[in-house]
Amino acid sequence: MSSQDFLWIAIGVASLAAAGGIAFACIRLGLTLRRLETTLDGVDRQLAGAEQPLQKTLAHVSGVAESIEDIVGKLDKVANAATAAAGAVAKTADAAQAAVTPTLANLVSVVTGVSQGAKTFFRSRGRNGSQDEG
Q1: If DSSP states are collapsed to H, E and C, what string results for 117-129?
Q2: Phi-psi region of 74 (alpha: psi -120 to 50; beta: other; left: phi over 0)
Q3: Is residue 41 part of a domain?
């Protein structure tokens, strides 16, 4: 047996060892994938059972969202109407103030004049009365 024969035998043994290691790794990977498949099948069955209740819940939530959207639209219309009404009230109040202010100013002037006249009248009567008594 020469060294070259020994080299070929060593290469053959090393190749068999590598092939055995690769075969062992492939068998372990196959078992792991089989367990993973079993687990995924179980998850599929559980999700299939939950599908109907989830679809009903989603449909209900969708209906509630549509109702809320309708309510928000109505509230928006009410807010716009309230804003318009407030603007109309403000314009009416401004017009009323513009119409009443000159009248009140004239009335205040008349009351002031009457008050001054009454003071003058009663002062002069007070002096006349004092002269009659004295």
Answers
A1: HHHHHHHHHHHHH
A2: alpha
A3: yes
Has residue 85 been placed in a domain?
yes
Amino acid at position 30, single letter = G
- Separation between Cα atoms, residue 75 and residue 69, nearest integer Å: 10
Q: Is 1 helix (H, G, I), strand (E, B) or coil?
A: coil
> Whole-model pTM above 0.90?
no
Q: Residue 60: in which H helix or E strand, if any? A: helix 3-133
Question: What would the pLDDT profile of 28-56 be if each residue is shown by its tens digit?
Answer: 999 999 999 999 999 888 888 887 888 88
Whether residue 82 is contained in a domain is answered as yes
pLDDT band, residue 108 (cuts 50/70/90): confident
